Amino acid sequence: APNAPCTTDVTCSNGCCENNPCLNGGTCSEICQPTNVRYNCFCPVPFVGKHCEIQLRRSCQDYKAASFTATGLYTVIDDRNQTFQVFCDFDSEPGFAWNLIESFNLSNNHLFKLIVFYDDYRAISGDAPNWQAYLMERPYLLWLRDHSTHWRATCRYETDGTVRTDYLRASLEDFDIIRQVPIVTDDCRPYEYVNIRGNECVNCTTRTWYKKGAYHFHIDSSYQNGCDSSGSISNQAVQSEDNFGFYEVIKRLFEESELVSGDSVAVRKFSDKYIVPEKLVAEYVEHLAQIKIPQEKKKEETERERTEKLNREYNDIDCVGLYNSDKLSSLRVDELSSYFSSYKITFKGKKAEKVAMIKAHIGSLLYDSMECRQPRQPPLRNVQQQVTAISEVETDSQNDVVDRVVGSSLSSLSDESSPETNFIPEPRAETLPPSKYGRKRPRVERDDYVSWEKICFLILYFDTCK
Predict the structure, then answer these.
(1) How far is the C-alpha of 276 from the C-alpha of 258, rounded, in Å?
(2) Residue 78 · residue 464 · CB < 8 Å
(3) Same domain, yes or no: 133 and 230
(4) pLDDT in tens, 407-455
(5) Of 90, 92, 422, 450, which is most buried by a Cβ count within 10 Å?
(6) Total number of domains in the chain
(7) Are residues 198 and 49 in the same domain?
């Protein structure tokens, strides 16, 4: 077979392995069939390469110590001899070598918005470091953490490199973003250096939001009460500003139609307020608009399919027959709902209430169809009072409550609409729970928010100085 190595029952005569070109204890194996490659080197861990000439390192710092100087992709090996790719930055800060662990642009913010490093997560392009959407496999992250001393966040490294504007650095000993589990949502955390829009603080505490189920790591420079950085990094800050992650405001403004695609005035206003280039704001608003189109189409299709299904189900049910035999209560809640939907009746309640309503409605329609002059069945608006006793003894359950169906007044068996049968229960007051974190805002899963001079692609690194 092509590329088959020599074995005991095959004679190879190309002589390529006579002088053993493999280094570092590698084993040479001749390839018997004539090909461009005449031999292979089988290399012991941690060596790789055609002649086993490359020794895999444990981290970017190890590569730097071995005189590698070119910033870029490298293969590292962990204590289980598992290999993985990392991006190494060797030259941005003297004395440091940095491993990229996360990077994302604004369009992919929603993928990272609630991720925390101290808990399990799903890696994103974990085997292919990139700037658009990348999150390292967590086992490799833990490995690098145990061989590192610092972590940092920068903005637009791909185009600008490492600059000290919109930049932070912290010691893992003081603030372990990987293993330490926060007790509260936001707290004053120690940093060696923080710079936002050129406003900086050195060896200071800065209020930081970071909690599973609530916030991806970020700082809000507009709210630094009680921390050393209060006043020092807040110049030009906008209320509820998110720095280095979580970006929220731009998505909220889009959802509230304050930012729409093609509205150059609104884009310019946002750009001036949040110090973000107009071009980037316009591109992202257009991106949100393109996402919204299929979402709205899908919503319309889902509602249409739901209505068709309810109509089909209703046509298969002999409601009048069940009424005459007093067996309407044998119907499921969704089948009762299909009755209301078919007559465009707005009603929400328990199963017993629905059965009573349908009985009254069918009775009312039957009286109309016979053109009776005797007193009609009780109007639908009084039926709820009649079934109060039933509803009080029947407990709520998942099967008792269904979605409200909204529509016009009923008209099917009767030629004229009856205001008495257009029953719409009084609306029930609904309240939204207050923000569980008090000061900032109700936590809503909104995707994107931009905060300052450059849109920050969150890039977290570890140095490996141990």
Answers:
(1) 17
(2) no
(3) yes
(4) 323 233 334 434 344 444 444 444 444 444 444 444 444 444 444 333 3
(5) 450
(6) 2
(7) no
Main-chain phi, psi angles of 449, to 5 degrees = -150, 135
Q: Are residues 177 and 113 in the same domain?
A: yes
Q: Is residue 125 part of a domain?
A: yes
Instruction: Classify burial at 347, counting beta carbons within 10 Å of its beta carbon; exposed 0-12, middle 13-18, buried 19 or more.
Output: buried
- Do 20 and 154 have their domain in common? no
Measuring CA to CA, which residue among 63, 48, 53 is closest to residue 73? 63
Q: Could you tell me if residue 188 is inside a domain?
A: yes
Query: Whole-angstrom Cα distance, residue 72 to residue 85?
Result: 10
- Summarised one tens digit per residue, pLDDT across range 41-91 is 999 888 988 999 888 988 898 999 888 999 999 999 888 888 899 999 998
Euclidean distance between CA atoms 102 and 151, whole angstroms: 11
Structural domain includes residue 61: yes
CA distance to 8, 63, 144, per residue, from 79 (Å):
35, 16, 11
Q: For residue 172, give the DSSP letter.
A: T
Kindly state whether residue 310 falls inside one of the protein's structural domains.
Answer: no
Question: Same domain for 114 and 239?
Answer: yes
Domain containing residue 132: 55-288+454-462
Asked whether residue 103 falls in the same domain as residue 29, the answer is: no
Tell me the C-alpha distance between 123 and 442, whole Å.
Answer: 28
Distances (CA, A) of 327 to 130, 206, 353, 356, 401: 64, 67, 15, 12, 20
pTM beyond cutoff 0.70: no
